[in-house]
Amino acid sequence: MSAAHPNDREAAQPPARLSFTERYRLQNWFLGIIAFAIVLFLLVQARFILISLVVAIILFSLTSDAINSIARLRIGTLRITNWLASIFAVALIASGLLALAGVVLAQVNTVLSTTLAYTEQAQVAVADAFGFLGEDVRDSVLSTMRSIDISAYLRAGAGQAGSFLQATVLVILFVGFLFAERVWFATKMTNLLGDEAQAEKVGQIIGSIIRRVNYYLLVKTLVSAVTGLMVYAAMRLFKLEFAEAMGIITFVFNYIPNVGSIVATVLVALVTYVQSGDPGLTMLVFSITGLIQFVNGNVIDPMLMGHALRLSSFGIIISLAFWGAVWGIPGMFLSVPIMVAIMIVCSHIPSLRPVAILLSREGLPDTEIRRFTMKDAIGDRARSPDLPPATRRSAAE
Fold first, then answer.
1. Dihedral sign, CA of 197, 199, 202, 206?
2. Of the candidates 210, 196, 204, 202, which has an alpha carbon nearest to the alpha carbon of residue 372?
3. Model pTM above 0.70
4. 28-52 core/surface letters (b: 16 or more CB in 10 A; e: else)
5. At a CB cut-off of 8 Å and minimum separation 6, what does 282 contact?
6. Is the dihedral of CA 259, 265, 268, 274 positive or negative?
């Protein structure tokens, strides 16, 4: 009887089974993928409500500290209550949002109504720009431009403008309910977590997110407003139409990191070329607008921003692409605030800390929180009764 071949014995052995740890990790990976797919589906399907909610939270955080200061004021013997201050804040935010919506809708209607009048002129101007390649290329470009249904895009733009007003009303409602709940937020957080120290730490994390996002928005608003005014002045200097619209578009698009300033500059140059048909004037306006964007965006903005965000440039691009794909143009505007919140939250979850390190600029995502924690620890150490008085004074200093 012949002995079995070694390869036959190896083939007869049962396959190695995964260990419990390996199966647990594999299960967690599959569950994570499924959870991410569900969250992504909900983000896309509920985008209108979620975008309005995020904007409302940002507006609430911007005005919450100011309302707390107003609530501490006294007029003679009368004290301004939290409810009165909250009502004043909601009324101020509502009036500001409605006024902004009116200005934006007016400019959108102006651009949409006059675009039809400039459609033929714009198509010819764009085709003429390729004239140096030959008459055949010019005719081909002109034929391609005329095949584009401009009216369909204008109708889509008008529909987006209409939904903008609906979103404004929804944001106002969200802000009102947030102010109504803000008085009980600390109590709810303590009861929810069941630990006052843990609730205080969560409050510090939320406070850090609010401070960084608020500072970013304030600096961005200031720089964008100055940039928009300078673009408006440049177009008025050359007696071009749509100066107001281009100034507002520049102001709005500058909130989109990296890409917004480029798009705004190209739009200004395109509008100039369509109106004048002069390549020399177009290049001059393009150069002036590009210089304004470069100085304000790469010199003044970083100088004012300092180390407030500490975000990775590559991480900003990834966040911009992701939220732009999920929520469209509104997601591009909200990509940086959302990224700041994700970075700070991940920095305090040990399993997610590598994500926070990748999103931060120097690999130090929680410098501000760590500073506050060290101060608290030093303060507790200084108040310890087990230390002699001289040591307590030294620790306090």
1. negative
2. 204
3. yes
4. eeeeeeeeeeeeeeeeeeeeeebbb
5. 269, 272, 273, 276
6. negative
Structure tokens that stand for 101 in this block: 């919506």
When pLDDT is cut at 50, 70 and 90, the band that residue 226 belongs to is very high
Distance, in Å, from the CA atom of 260 to the CA atom of 263, rounded to the nearest integer, reads 5
pLDDT value at 214 more than 60: yes
Name the H helices within 296-366. 301-305, 313-327, 329-346, 353-359
Q: With the C-alpha atoms ordered 261, 246, 300, 213, is the resulting torsion angle positive or negative?
A: negative
- Which two structure tokens, joined as six digits, stand for 43? 């983000």
C-alpha 242 chain-centroid distance: 27
| Length of the chain, in residues | 397
Average pLDDT over residues 357-371: 64
pLDDT at 375: 45
Per-residue b or e along 238-268, where b marks 16 or more CB atoms closer than 10 Å to that residue's CB = eebebbbbbbbbbbbbbbbbeebbeebbebb
Residues 261, 266: Cα–Cα separation, whole Å: 9
Q: How far is CA 82 from CA 56, 217, 237, in A?
A: 19, 25, 49
Tell me the two tokens of residue 207. Answer: 């406070």
User: Which comes out higher in pLDDT, residue 350 or 19?
Assistant: 350
Q: Please list, residue by residue across 109-127, b when 16 or more beta carbons sit within 10 angstroms of its beta carbon and e when fewer do.
A: eebeeebeebbeebbbbbb
Query: Three-class SS of residue 360?
Result: strand
Query: How many CB atoms neighbour CB 319 within 10 A?
Result: 25
Burial of 338: CB neighbours in 10 Å, binned 0-12, 13-18, 19+ = middle
Number of helices and strands in the chain (H, E): 17, 2
Q: How far apart are CA 102 and CA 250, in angstroms?
A: 18
74 touches 193 (CB < 8 A): no
**Long-range Cβ contact pairs of 199-202 (< 8 A, separation 24 or more):** 201/348
The mean of the pLDDT values for the chain is 77
Residue 37 has pLDDT above 70, yes or no: yes
